[in-house]
Write a structure and sequence with these properties.
The complex is a heterodimer of chains A (about 220) and B (about 400). Chain A has about 220 residues and is an alpha/beta fold. Chain A has 7 helices and 10 strands. The chains are: A alpha/beta (about 220), B alpha+beta (about 400).
Chain lengths: ~220, ~400
């Protein structure tokens, strides 16, 4: 197997509430290779949100070592983390998290703006990403003018437009009806087939079943 | 994120809440408009006062009898009687002096036909129009010959002529001053008032005639001296002092019995008062600019709170703290600078209206505009930095969870 995209060694995340220390992740070891489609599954309170924050470089582990796409995360400052997120991660959120009062096209183009890509190229790439997801006729619609399934596809287009090493999806079907949810899962299958590395975080075993590999997390530890 | 993108973001943001944007800018608009208007009004008033003072006469020195200090007290203005017509004649030979006009004045009843008026009848010399900046409307001014021969001729101020019903055809007619007949040889152009006394309400007669018929002494109220150029004011003052000291027998260290006041003294006093007023007004107005800035800061803080989730999203998709900081700072700057520009337009318009109503020349000062723009930029930065840094410091994990 080639170098993993994600490599965690003895990673722990302990929250300091001021009175007590709350361990959310304990000694997690995990390796995910390029092209893998992995589901991280666990009930609420299991530590999967913390896992998502750590994997997505929104948060740093309090102990242990995390290497993402060849970059040791623990050594980075806030700007370094932001640059790594910009370069290597595409987020898909449960509640879509599109920028309000902003067209689909501008939403998808925004990550490129933070990479310093010129406006013309940004717009072209964003348009191409939206067209690939079947939203070519929704470019100038605002989020409130789109259905849930359409909004989530805009979210996925935004995650993919930077060609990230890792697509990190947090309950991507959580707010969708079963039909739209199935469409999103189907989309993930297609992306996986075209070679993307996907990490899907969910509490729903049916959704997790779509992935090649399931990692169960319970009480901050990997169960199986 | 590039500068152009930040601009585009800030502009589109301001367009989304137009009422809020307008109300937030209002503070800065009022502040800048009042600074611009008040400074312009102050300058207009100053230049108005200056041009009227210049109307008094160019490079004018006034020599008046009496000392500034005699022991501990000073006599009432004009109460001393130490200056004479001969002093004036002697002064006119000084090298830096262009003209000398003594004033030997008394209040007299002037009658023309059935109309009459009690006014200032001043005995003077042909240099009077030069010294006090008058010009002739009809006829001609007093001649040296009329002074030499104490002729009964009179030149009327414009207001006096109007009051007495005398127009162009009055040249050569007769007016009676305290019952004595005088031939009207000229009527002067109106000059416009300075202070309480109307400079166009007077009758001018040869100084010798005034001495012989009305005053009876040589003592003059004041001697107006026109200096050849503004640069020679100081040397002319020194020459007059030396001459009068010598003529009046005042030795070195003695107390002079005359006072020389220059117009420039008066000008600089008036100038400094009006500058002080302008600064004071602008200072008060800039307080409202600061209040406007606080309004912007308030709205920006609310905005950061409202858009916590947006900030979280932006950070998740690659925005650095600096990007978020600049985004909010640009919004604050956009508010303050566009408010400033609108304020300038309103302020300039208001000062133009005031200038027209007050009847002085409208002065448009580009420096004020530049200063206002810079000031509103500074207000934007000062009151935008804190909210922007609050936004930049948000933890993405917390911000994304924020509802």
């Amino acid at each position: 197997m080639s170098d993993p995209i994600i490599h965690l060694e003895n990673v722990s995340r302990v929250y300091d509430t001021g009175k007590v220390l709350v361990p959310a992740l304990v000694d997690v070891d995990l390796s995910i290779g390029p092209g893998e489609f992995v589901a991280i599954i666990g009930p609420s309170g299991s530590g999967k949100s913390t896992m998502m924050n750590i994997l997505g470089c929104l948060d740093r582990p309090t102990a242990g070592r995390y290497v993402l796409d060849g970059t040791p995360v623990s050594e980075l400052d806030d700007n370094g983390l932001a640059a790594l997120r910009s370069r290597s991660i595409g987020f898909v959120f449960q509640s879509y998290n599109l920028l309000p009062r902003t067209s689909a096209l501008e939403n998808v183009a925004t990550p490129l703006a933070y990479q310093g890509v010129g406006r013309r190229e940004r717009m072209e790439r964003a348009r191409a990403a939206l067209e690939r997801l079947g939203l070519g006729d929704r470019l100038h619609h605002q989020p409130t003018e789109l259905s849930g399934g359409q909004q989530q596809r805009v979210g996925i287009a935004r995650a993919l437009v930077t060609e990230p090493a890792l697509l990190l999806a947090d309950e991507p079907t959580g707010n969708l009806d079963s039909h739209a949810g199935a469409e999103v899962i189907e989309l993930f299958h297609e992306l996986h087939a075209s070679g993307r590395t996907i990490v899907l975080i969910t509490h729903d075993p049916d959704v997790a079943a779509a992935a090649d590999r399931q990692i169960h997390i319970r009480d901050g530890r990997i169960a199986a | 994120m590039k500068l152009g993108d930040l601009f585009r973001l800030a502009i589109s943001r301001l367009g989304t809440g137009k009422l809020r944007t307008a109300l937030t800018m209002l503070g800065v608009i009022i502040g800048v408009a009042s600074v611009v208007a008040l400074v312009s009004v102050g300058q207009g008033a100053t230049s108005g006062i200056n041009s009227r003072l210049e109307g008094l006469g160019t490079n004018l020195l006034s020599v008046t009898p009496g000392s500034t200090t005699t022991g501990a007290t000073r006599g009432a203005f004009g109460s001393a009687t130490t200056l004479t017509i001969e002093d004036a004649t002697a002064m006119s030979t000084l090298p830096d002096v262009a003209g000398v006009a003594p004033e030997l004045a008394s209040q007299r009843l002037v009658v023309a036909g059935t109309l009459n008026e009690t006014t200032n009848v001043i005995g003077t010399t042909p240099a009077y129009p030069l010294v006090f900046a008058y010009s002739m409307w009809q006829g001609s001014f007093l001649t040296q010959a009329s002074v030499d021969h104490s002729l009964r001729v009179a030149v009327l101020g414009n207001t006096t002529a109007t009051t007495l019903g005398l127009g162009p055809s009055a040249i050569g007619s007769t007016v009676y001053i305290s019952g004595l007949p005088f031939e009207v040889v000229g009527i002067m152009q109106p000059k416009g008032g300075v202070g309480f006394q109307n400079p166009d309400d007077e009758v001018l007669i040869p100084v010798t005639t005034a001495r012989d018929l009305f005053v009876g002494t040589d003592s003059v109220r004041t001697i107006g001296v026109s200096v050849a150029s503004a640069k020679q004011m100081d040397t002319a003052t020194a020459e007059i002092t030396t001459l009068l000291d010598q003529r009046h027998g005042i030795g070195a260290g003695g107390t002079p019995d005359f006072t020389i006041t220059s117009q420039t003294q008066l000008l600089s006093t008036v100038g400094s008062i009006s500058t002080l007023l302008t600064v004071l007004l602008a200072g008060i107005a800039s307080i409202s600019l600061i209040v406007g800035g606080i309004g912007i800061m308030n709205i920006m803080l609310v905005s950061v709170r409202e858009r916590t989730r947006e900030i979280g999203i932006r950070k998740a998709i690659g925005a650095r703290g600096r990007d978020v900081m600049l985004q909010f700072l640009f919004e604050a700057l956009m508010l303050s600078v566009s408010g400033g520009l609108i304020g300038i337009v309103i302020g300039v318009a208001a000062s133009a209206v005031i200038a027209v109503l007050a009847g002085w020349a409208f002065t448009f000062n580009p420096v004020t505009v530049v200063v206002s723009v810079v000031f509103s930029l500074i207000v934007g930065v000062i009151f935008g930095v804190w909210p922007a840094s609050q936004a930049a410091r948000l933890d993405p994990v917390v911000a994304l969870r924020y509802e």
